Amino acid sequence: MKIPPKPRRGKRSPFYWWRRWKSHQYLPVKKGLLARIQNGDFEYPELFDWAKYELHYMKDELKAYTKEYMGFSPAEHSDGYMDIEKRYRKRYNKLFADACEVEHRHLTSLAEALAKEFKVDKEKIKTIMETFGEATEDLYIYVKQNRYTI
Asked: Which of 38, 40, 80, 95 sits CB 3.0–4.6 Å from 51 for a disulfide?
């Protein structure tokens, strides 16, 4: 996995301080389901990758800290080391929780939107989604073609 460089501090929302990168721009509902699928509104969220990046950035900063550490006790037991780890772990936990919430929202809203558009039972859509192994757009096409037999 290629880790991107840590972004510079920019304008941030106080409500989403744990996000370093720009979030996905969702299309409005009136654009239609297929356009929203093609825009990536229901895809796997990048937040999981961002959480992994945070752990990598933590390792880099801890490595630099232990290199410059000049105390008598081991660097891993110092307050500075623990503060760095605490800060990055907090951001990692927030990103991971946010990613789980976003992924759940994507899956449930996709099932609801497909059920509403093709007038199919939502539970049947969910069972199809569990075993369907292709892209989201292919799922849309599959449900569109088989809506009367589902």
From this structure: 95
Domain count, the chain: 1
Render each residue's pLDDT in the chain as its tens digit; 150 residues: 788 888 776 666 666 677 788 888 999 999 999 999 999 999 999 999 999 999 999 999 999 999 999 888 888 899 999 999 999 999 999 999 999 999 999 999 999 999 999 999 999 999 999 999 999 999 999 999 999 888
Helix H, strand E, coil C: the string for 49-96 is HHHHHHHHHHHHHHHHHHHHCCCCCCHHHCHHHHHHHHHHHHHHHHHH
Specify if 54 maps to a domain: yes
